[in-house]
UniProtKB/TrEMBL annotation:
Catalyzes the conversion of acetate into acetyl-CoA (AcCoA), an essential intermediate at the junction of anabolic and catabolic pathways. AcsA undergoes a two-step reaction. In the first half reaction, AcsA combines acetate with ATP to form acetyl-adenylate (AcAMP) intermediate. In the second half reaction, it can then transfer the acetyl group from AcAMP to the sulfhydryl group of CoA, forming the product AcCoA. Mg(2+) binds at residues 542, 544, 547. This is Acetyl-coenzyme A synthetase. Residues 536-614 form the AMP-binding enzyme C-terminal domain. The gene is acsA_3. It comes from Pseudooceanicola marinus. One of its GO terms (molecular function) is AMP binding. Acetylated. Deacetylation by the SIR2-homolog deacetylase activates the enzyme. It is an enzyme of class 6 (ligase). Belongs to the ATP-dependent AMP-binding enzyme family. Residues 28-85 form the Acetyl-coenzyme A synthetase N-terminal domain. ATP binds at residues 390-392, 414-419, 505, 520, 531. The keyword RNA-binding does not apply. Signal peptide: none annotated.
Length: 654
């Protein structure tokens, strides 16, 4: 195979791809220009891709001024998101597969859920929610694995105007309880157990444990998925399958204002507890549908697969809302890339003739390490486009993806975005831009990026440049507020660099002006593409009775991108031991979930602190990175000798 990879490291799309692409370079340039010079006109036109009950006439009403931040799009429009994702497709593609469900067990049959069937399920579930007393604006927590019922539940909420909050099924009972309580949910929807990689997670019993910490008014709707035995609390627990089979198959959709909340999704920040990111209806869906079509070069009839979990924003926008708004066939995969072996992804691509494939660099790095035979033995000729998301992709993984998976034929879109942004903000447009391995390249339509000097906050206009990434103006998919705490929303995103939305990411603009994300500049780490606040792991650790103090930082990890490095100071009378490391790992898994499991634990007799008692994380990061030669200024340390001890006993020596 002759793989196009010029010496410059710039990879242009093939002529063949460009010829069939939705958006070529001239179109991108013209549309981008219009989107920033005439945002009202541009987005009014784009909103036409949705079916409105009342068309919006006020398009954009946004203010980024600290103290007065307010973001509204299409504010006088009315629509129903579920109608846009389901009903409006029934006349033309009722028998087309909407959701292609591939179970964890490769021997179990895949399920092709048509738009007609999706409609039936969503309507029935909506009626069940109504019968349980769920009303417009009420919150429904969804704690489900990657099964079609998760999409039914999201769309059922949208149909009746309830606000869903999906909690990743890998989160612990504590994490689930915190989210149920923070948003004041009336209902939690869960399943008996969740098979994944051949093992089962006991979701119902996790939910039972969580509900011990919640109001006794919260009802629990249970999907019988595996049929495993679970406990049952009469009066609280409800058999969802049974009620759905007895519910009416039609439920009138509720007309919703464009700015009515569609969902809350909790995400980690640098401080405090996770924030409930609020997305609304009209702008979010417009942005989800447009980005899905343009960035993945989606064409009618394509089979599209995003391997994310519905518990994260990627699953919301690019498994459920974007693809279904466009009438696509979206693959929903219950399993993991390495079960039963490292060819599972590629077998699924072959089996379902997938055209677009979207995954995280961490999965690629894990699969790359298993050897090429797993990918080479599969027929991947259906693939036309590849995508990545969640963390910077290293050139080795990029090249492997390009050569082994895309066979040099498929453009790779490296999409940078966040829970807060609702959809892609930076990405190459596959039929328009040559790509550079590791670069998220260009702003999407309507996105005005600026590189700011991290210290002065001044915009750096010359190129190349290095600084932090901020946004100058709003786009329709932007989050509107933090649930119940608008002040926190302003303080987190608009206070540090006035007049801008601050992403929390560092970035580099190269001589061509193309953008490279360099990673978080705050205390958020990115572990296997999962975003985590180091403060959350620290508070889990100090909640253990043997721990006096803890500081957590990220360090480079070959597969996960970043690993979790914990400095732990024990209580006076406690002896450190390998057993205790295991105990603390299990403790954190239990407090937050397996994704937060510490990779390295170093016993720290003391932590480097300033005289005012502030932990100097910069130093801890350097030691964790095994880069202790350049610790910078340590003169403000209260006790410089603690640093020598930490260096001597450092755990990462790579
Ligand atoms: C990181 C996931 C580099 C970034 C959609 C961001 C990326 C955080 C990329 C958001 C990318 C996401 N290249 N870094 N293509 N995509 N990130 O909220 O640090 O789970 O701020 O949203 O992931 O993570 P979140």
């Amino acid at each position: 195979m002759n793989v196009a990879m010029p010496a410059s490291g710039v990879v242009p799309p093939s002529e063949e791809f460009v010829a069939q692409a939705n958006v070529d370079l001239a179109t991108y340039n013209a549309m981008y220009e219009r989107s920033v010079t005439d945002p009202e006109g541009f987005w009014a036109e784009q909103a036409e891709r949705l079916d409105w009950i009342t068309r919006p006439t006020t398009i954009k009403n946004t203010c980024f001024d600290f103290g007065r931040v307010s973001i509204k799009w299409f504010e006088d429009g009315f629509l129903n998101v579920a109608v846009n994702c389901v009903d409006r497709h029934l006349a033309t593609r009722g028998d087309q597969t909407a959701i292609l469900f591939e179970p964890d067990d490769p021997e179990a049959p895949a399920r092709h859920i048509t738009y007609n069937e999706l409609s039936d399920k969503v309507n029935r579930m909506a009626n069940v929610l109504l019968s349980q007393g769920v009303m417009r604006g009420d919150r429904v927590v969804i704690y489900l694995p990657m099964i079609p019922e998760a999409a039914y539940a999201m769309l059922a909420c949208a149909r009746i105007g309830a606000i869903h909050s999906v909690v990743f099924a890998g989160f612990s009972p504590d994490a689930l309880a915190n989210r149920i309580n923070d948003c004041g949910a009336k209902i939690v929807i869960t399943a008996d157990t969740a098979p994944r990689g051949g093992r089962r997670t006991a979701l119902k019993s996790n939910t039972d444990a969580a509900l011990l910490h919640c109001s006794d008014k919260v009802r629990c709707l249970v999907v019988k998925h595996t049929g495993d035995q679970t406990s049952w609390v009469d009066g609280r627990d409800v058999d969802l399958n049974y009620l759905m089979s007895h519910a009416a198959p039609d439920c009138p959709p509720r007309p919703m204002n464009a700015e009515d909340p569609l969902f809350i999704l909790y995400t980690s920040g640098s401080t405090g507890k996770p924030k409930g990111v609020v997305h609304t209806s009209g702008g979010y869906l417009t942005y989800a549908a447009l980005t899905h079509e343009v960035v993945f070069d989606y064409h009618e009839g394509d089979v599209y697969w995003c391997t994310a979990d519905v518990g994260w924003v990627t699953g919301h926008t690019y498994i459920v809302y974007g693809p279904l708004a466009n009438g696509a066939t979206t693959v929903m995969f219950e399993g993991v890339p390495t079960y039963p072996d490292a060819s599972r992804f590629w077998q699924v691509v072959e089996k379902h003739k997938v055209n677009q494939f979207y995954t995280a660099p961490t999965a690629l790095r894990a699969l790359m390490g298993q050897g090429d035979e797993f990918v080479e033995k599969c027929d991947l000729s259906s693939l036309r486009l590849l995508g990545t998301v969640g963390e910077p992709i290293n050139p080795e993984a990029w090249n492997w993806y390009n050569e082994k998976v895309g066979q040099g034929r498929c453009p790779i879109v490296d999409t940078w975005w966040q829970t807060e942004t609702g959809g892609h903000l930076l990405t190459p447009i596959p039929g328009a831009h040559a790509t550079k391995p590791g670069s998220a390249m260009k702003p999407f339509f309507g996105v005005q990026t600026v590189v700011l000097d991290a210290t002065t906050g001044e915009e750096i206009t010359e190129r190349p440049a290095e600084g932090v990434l901020a946004l100058k103006d709003s786009w329709p998919g932007q989050m509107r507020t933090v649930w119940g705490d608008h002040e926190r929303f302003e303080a987190t995103y608009f206070q540090q660099y006035k007049g801008h939305y601050f992403s929390g990411d560092g970035c580099r603009a190269d001589a061509d002006g193309d953008l490279w994300i360099t990673g978080r500049v705050d205390d958020v780490i990115n572990v296997s593409g999962h975003r985590m606040g180091t403060a959350e792991v620290e508070s889990a650790l100090v909640a253990h009775h043997k721990v006096a103090e803890a500081a957590v930082v990220g360090y480079p990890h070959a597969v996960k991108g970043q690993g979790i490095y914990c400095y732990v100071t024990l209580m006076n009378d406690v002896e450190p031991s390998d057993e205790l490391v295991k105990e603390l790992r299990a403790w954190v898994r239990n407090e937050i979930g397996p994704i937060a499991s510490p990779d390295l634990v170093q016993w720290a007799p003391g932590l480097p602190k300033t005289r005012s008692g502030k932990i100097m994380r910069r130093i801890l990061r350097k030691i964790a990175e095994n880069d202790y030669g350049a610790l910078g200024d340590t003169s403000t340390l209260a006790d410089p000798s603690v640093v020598d001890d930490l260096i001597e006993n450092r755990k990462n020596r790579d």
